[in-house]
Specification:
It is a single chain. This protein is of the alpha+beta class. The protein has a domain at 2-26 and 396-645: Alpha/Beta hydrolase fold, catalytic domain (Rossmann fold, 3-Layer(aba) Sandwich). 19% of the residues lie in helices and 35% in strands. The chain has 13 helices and 35 strands. The strands form eight sheets. An eight-stranded mixed β-sheet has the order 28-29-31-30-32-33-34-35, sandwiched between helices. A four-stranded antiparallel β-sheet has the order 1-2-3-4, with no helix packed on it. The longest helix has 16 residues, at 630-645. It is globular, with a radius of gyration of 25 Å. Residues 452-648 form the Peptidase S9 prolyl oligopeptidase catalytic domain. Keywords: Hydrolase, Signal. This is Prolyl oligopeptidase family serine peptidase. It holds the Pfam family Peptidase_S9.
């Protein structure tokens, strides 16, 4: 492994000496605009395509439905007067599931209790009859592609404006399962849920077959299954302790499907005594793993994928993982592998996902993306592709940089993966911006990244380090982050800077950090750590006080121990007097995940110590990017690039100082 990585580093060095610009510097407004189209999907009968289309760069989405045999004809258009349409998908050949959002409060009511409320509705593809609203807590448990008149839903019949006096809290927390008639709206209960079980999994017929139980006293999770879906009795499968992180991680056993030929056997994702997560077959009668289908020693298997057919019940097609930062697939379906190979041959320069197909895939939808192509949707009929829409057509001529996957050695010897984006202008050594992801317990992969593209288009090289704590690289990489916030987790980021300087790629006097959420915490930490590695830091929606965030996040018994042990280390607000670099702080006004007071703690500490800084608040913005409207995003990108060029002292030809 070491030899291969070393050779990869040499190849990167040779190719990165200079990059010929292909594309243009574009206005920041182009990046601040939402996707022009989204949720593009083919109907299960292959006769229609639905999508959300943006009405204006600062407008809302409408729904468009087009006929596949007349794509240039006039579409059916559906909109909402008071609410924002946030999602649309097919639930049958004629009916659509639509999600809405509306801001109903001016201030958050607590952590993860924001100002937005959501609604869901069903509508005929023609709009006939209007939107049929569902209870606000309704969720889809399973789409029954083999029985298009029905789907399985979960609901307790709860709406946000309901009065709760006299209601059972357990009833609201554990909604029941129903078989729902899509055409008529009638529903019949198929399983009464209770406070004992959670984590249900359904078989292909829509029957809840697998569930889990948490014993809060012993911190033990027990798995159960129903051998007979008509029998209400549950049979115990196995148990594991939440404290046994070295054996099970925070993952336990994840059922992703059942053997269609033997329902007593389940496809599961689990560590099974190894550092990484693998795909296995489990005997549900004994709880034993009887065969490993696919497991790697370098990265986790992160999920399963199914054949893309939507006109029948699809079968399990394989498993996904990230290797060298790329989304990879391990196929168990020869048919699915052949389809993927055919599509990849047709579109060789992008990462391609076949996500809908009908009529034995004579018709299909493909989404293609790369660092150079933000996203394009193709409809393919009988081998002929048609572009249905591009997510960001305004960026078609933009210079977006070129990404590479690297691995470098941290000071304690740990190997740290990273995604490096080379700017499309100039030559090494480049000005560098380190952009750590949020989470921190998440995965990150090579794909179009809006914030990275803004920076690359302005002449900056960008490093996205997969520091310890990043998931997808095994239990050890995850556990090594516990209690290390601002300590070895920050070492990993700083050591990435050192590596790129040693390779001649980064200018040691032109380095900054920008992050959001945990990444914002990392930027706070970078500002207080000594000696300074960075010219400046930009902290977005960042955590500054770990004691408070542990209290806020550690609500459930499962979360509490994870958060108390994992989210520990250095609180930057306690060391504000050590800040020696320009610090820009940005936060959403109504952030429910990391409340604005986390930034305010840091601001107060900076003011007490007379440390210069700048604070920018984004009106009506929550934590996640889908609540940052056009004006918010334009403000963010303007402040970010302005700070880099001016206060940071890192101007480029594409981002000059004012």
């Amino acid at each position: 492994m070491t030899r291969v990585l070393a050779l990869a580093g040499i190849a990167l060095m040779a190719s990165a000496a200079s990059v010929e610009a292909q594309g243009e510097v574009v206005p920041l407004e182009y990046f601040a605009t939402y996707q022009a189209v989204d949720d593009v999907a083919l109907s299960p009968d292959g006769e229609h395509i639905v999508m959300r289309r943006l009405t204006a760069r600062d407008g809302n989405y409408i729904i468009e439905v087009r006929e596949t045999d007349n794509l240039t004809g006039n579409p059916v258009r559906l909109g909402a007067e008071r609410m924002e349409i946030t999602g649309v998908s097919w639930i049958s050949p004629d009916y659509l599931w639509v999600s809405f959002r509306q801001q109903v409060r001016d201030a958050i009511e607590g952590v993860n209790q924001g100002v937005y409320e959501t609604k869901r509705a069903i509508v005929h593809r023609t709009g006939r009859g209007g939107f049929r609203e569902l209870n606000d807590d309704t969720s889809i448990a399973r789409i029954m592609w083999g029985d298009p008149d029905y789907m399985i839903i979960r609901t307790a019949g709860y709406n946000y404006n309901d009065r709760l006096e006299g209601e059972s809290i357990a009833r609201l927390q554990y909604p029941d399962f129903y078989r729902y008639n899509i055409r008529t709206g009638r529903q019949s209960r198929i399983l009464r849920a209770n406070a004992r079980f959670g984590g249900y999994d359904l078989d292909q017929q829509g029957n809840p077959r697998f569930a889990s139980e948490l014993d809060r006293g012993t911190q033990t999770v027990t798995y159960f299954w129903r051998p007979d879906p008509e029998d209400p009795d549950w049979q115990e499968v196995m148990s594991w302790s939440l404290n046994d992180y070295a054996e099970y991680g925070d993952y336990g056993i994840n059922v992703v499907g059942f053997d269609p030929d033997d329902s007593s056997r389940a496809y599961v994702l689990a560590h099974n005594g190894e550092n990484t997560i693998g795909a296995h077959i489990m005997d549900m009668n004994t709880g034993e793993i009887i065969r490993t289908i696919y497991q790697r020693d370098d990265v986790d298997i992160l999920g399963a994928f199914f054949e893309p057919d939507t006109d029948r019940e699809p079968e399990l097609a394989g498993f996904v993982f990230y290797a060298d930062g790329e989304l990879r697939r391990a196929f168990i379906s020869e048919r699915a592998a052949e389809i993927q190979n055919m599509v990849d041959a047709a579109f060789p320069n992008t990462r391609n996902t076949v996500y809908d197909c009908v009529n034995n895939c004579a018709q299909m939808m493909v989404f293609s993306q790369s660092s150079q192509e933000p996203g394009v949707y193709y409809y393919i009929a009988n081998g002929q592709p048609v572009v249905i829409g591009r997510e960001y057509p305004q960026l078609i001529d933009a210079a977006l940089g070129r990404e590479e996957f690297i691995t470098y050695t941290a000071r304690d010897g740990r190997q740290i993966p990273g995604i490096l984006t080379l700017p499309p202008f100039g030559q090494a050594p480049y000005p560098l911006v380190v952009v750590p992801h949020g989470g921190p317990w998440v995965s990150e992969t090579r794909a179009y990244d809006e914030w990275v593209s803004v920076l690359a288009n302005r002449g900056y090289m960008v490093l996205q380090p997969q520091y310890r704590g990043s998931q997808g690289y095994g239990i050890d990489h995850w556990l090594s982050s516990w209690g290390q916030w601002g300590i070895t987790m920050s070492d990993d980021k700083d050591d990435g800077v050192r590596y790129l300087v040693e390779q001649g790629l980064a200018d040691p006097d032109q380095v900054a950090m920008f992050g959001w959420s945990y990444g914002g915490y990392a930027a706070f930490a970078a500002a207080v750590r000594q000696p300074p590695v960075y010219n400046c830091a930009i902290a977005g929606a960042g955590v500054s006080d770990l004691d408070i965030i542990q209290r806020d996040f550690g609500g459930s018994p499962i979360q509490r121990e994870l958060i108390e042990e994992g989210y520990a280390g250095m609180s930057p607000n306690e060391f504000a007097e050590d800040v020696r670099i320009p610090l820009l702080i940005i936060h959403g006004e109504v952030d429910q995940r990391v409340p604005q007071y986390q930034s305010q703690y840091m601001i107060n500490a900076l003011q007490r110590n007379n440390v210069p800084h700048r604070y920018v608040e984004l009106p009506d913005a929550d934590h996640f990017s889908n609540t940052l409207n056009f004006d918010n995003q334009l403000t963010l990108f303007t402040e970010l690039t302005g700070w880099l060029a001016n206060e940071c002292g890192m101007p480029t030809d594409q981002n000059p100082a004012r």
